[in-house]
Amino acid sequence: DADVTQTPRNRITKTGKRIMLECSQTKGHDRMYWYRQDPGLGLQLIYYSFDVKDINKGEISDGYSVSRQAQAKFSLSLESAIPNQTALYFCATSDRKTSGRALGGNEQFFGPGTRLTVL
Amino acid sequence: GQQLNQSPQSMFIQEGEDVSMNCTSSSIFNTWLWYKQEPGEGPVLLIALYKAGELTSNGRLTAQFGITRKDSFLNISASIPSDVGIYFCAGQITNAGKSTFGDGTTLTVKP
């Protein structure tokens, strides 16, 4: 079974619709992240959460919101989708306590991605 | 904010050739990470580097943490078709808890 799962895997929607992308993890990690990937632009951080009560904006948070319902769940919402939000969205997790040799160093584990198309 | 310049943007090589790619930054990072993304999947960690000057290998892959802490290099020796994918570098500042990613190097290997 996958450690980081994302639903749905593919979604086509229309401009103005509200969309929620969900992420669940069984790794027991405290940190979760949402990224957006556009062709040739790498991964851009949308929001990240260090625990249930700690949520932070990333580089491109405008037009998005998140909810950390539990340590294992982190959802991303587009309140009113627009065509330039068409992209591949990835959820990722990391564990502050065990990752890396340097203090605070954290390898991230990614989900399989959600391909979102806004028409 | 911090930016990473990753080059080359894409590479088309023959099976068996060696590959080199690099990442440079205008600011210092304390950790460098290299990920590989295969089609239809999320990125997967290949190598993590935690100390300036560190050289670390993972099979045919070797990565180095630059002495200035502003760059990192990834080499793949004797490439094979399954090396195809997008390779990302990522830099981290200690205790920041998040990464800055490069734009990726797309590798194509011709049999």
Short description:
The complex is a heterodimer of chains A (119) and B (111). Chain A has 119 residues and is mainly beta. Chain A contains no helices and 11 strands.
Could you characterize what this model shows?
The complex is a heterodimer of chains A (119) and B (111). The mean pLDDT of chain A is 90. With 119 residues, chain A is mainly β. In chain A, the strands form 2 sheets. In chain A, strands 2, 4, 5, 6, 9, 10 and 11 form a 7-stranded mixed beta sheet that branches. Chain A has a 4-stranded antiparallel beta sheet with strand order 1-3-8-7, with no helix packed on it. Chain B starts with a strand and ends with a strand. The model of chain B has no long low-confidence stretch (mean pLDDT 93). Chain B is mainly beta. In chain B, the strands form 2 sheets. In chain B, strands 2, 4, 5, 9, 10 and 11 form a 6-stranded mixed beta sheet that branches. At the A-B interface, strand 4, strand 5, strand 9 and strand 10 of A face strand 5 and strand 9 of B.
Which structural category fits the helices and strands of chain B? mainly beta
Number of helices of chain B: 0
State the end-to-end distance of chain B. 41 Å
Mean model confidence by pLDDT of chain A: 90
Order of helices and strands of chain A: EEEEEEEEEEE
Total strands of chain B: the figure is 11
Quaternary status of these chains?
Answer: heterodimer
Structural class of chain A: mainly beta
Helix proportion of chain A: under 10%
Q: What percent strand of chain A?
A: over 45%
Task: Name the helicity range of chain B.
Answer: under 10%
Shape of chain B: globular
Q: What integer value in Å does the Rg of chain B equal?
A: 13 Å
Helix and strand element order of chain B: EEEEEEEEEEE
Overall radius of gyration of chain A: 14 Å
Which residue ranges of chain B are poorly predicted, with pLDDT under 50 across at least 5 consecutive positions? none
